[in-house]
């Protein structure tokens, strides 16, 4: 079954797993870093990883510090896991995510940022055992099927999103909230987005006003609990 022929997310995840198995890749995840799904309690369409790795990832709160989740906003370019981690400073807390993944057989992988037709930013991450890297044709293959995957996943979920956001947020406001949720300061968010800290504060204040959040902490907690929920 081709990706576009899948009628639901479970079938889509299964079909994608078969496609990446040709490259001896055993794990995958697809999700959003901006947009309404990114601001929900679960920003992924699916996660096909070892059950033990998923349990550790959630228990340790790795989503908040994972550089692979930040990469689509930081760069927007596809990349190999080890190459992406090399861009982050040695003391970045996210480095322990890659090290922990190796204990579950995920030594190397590839991340493809995908921009949806509506302008939101998503990602598809795949991984497997030890390998020398990814050849050019393998990278192109992964980027093509990952783009198809994410856009079809978004299309499948679109009917469920009607009215999910209490007020329209600009793409930049969504990016700022996504990074705020990951624990970044105004200055760190500014460095990622290449704007001033004052601009970041302005975007977050606008988002707080639109969504009726009491303060910035409430803004982040609200969307950790899911759109439309109080978070407290």
Structural class: alpha+beta
Q: Largest sheet, described in full?
A: 5 strands, antiparallel
**How many helical stretches?**
11
Termini gap:
44 Å
What overall form do the CA principal axes indicate? globular
Work out the strand percent: 5-15%
Q: Report the uncertain regions.
A: 162-166, 224-232
Mean pLDDT: 86
Number of strands: 5
Q: Strand arrangement, largest sheet? A: 2-1-5-4-3
**Helix content estimate:** 40-55%
**Rg estimate, integer Å:** 17 Å
Order of helices and strands: HEEHHHEHHEEHHHHH
Features:
single chain; 232 residues; alpha+beta; 49% helix; globular; disordered C terminus
Layout of SSEs?
Blueprint: H1 9-21, E1 25-32, E2 44-48, H2 51-59, H3 62-65, H4 67-74, E3 79-80, H5 81-85, H6 95-102, E4 108-115, E5 121-128, H7 136-157, H8 171-181, H9 186-193, H10 197-211, H11 216-225
Antiparallel strand pairs: 1-2, 1-5, 3-4, 4-5
Nutshell version of this structure?
The protein has 232 residues and is α+β, with helices and mostly antiparallel strands.
Describe the protein's architecture and organization.
The relative contact order is 0.15. Strands 2-1-5-4-3 form a 5-stranded antiparallel β-sheet, with helices on both faces. The chain has 11 helices and 5 strands; from the N terminus they run αββαααβααββααααα. The model is unreliable at 162-166 and 224-232 (pLDDT under 50). With 232 residues, it is α+β, with helices and mostly antiparallel strands. The chain is globular.
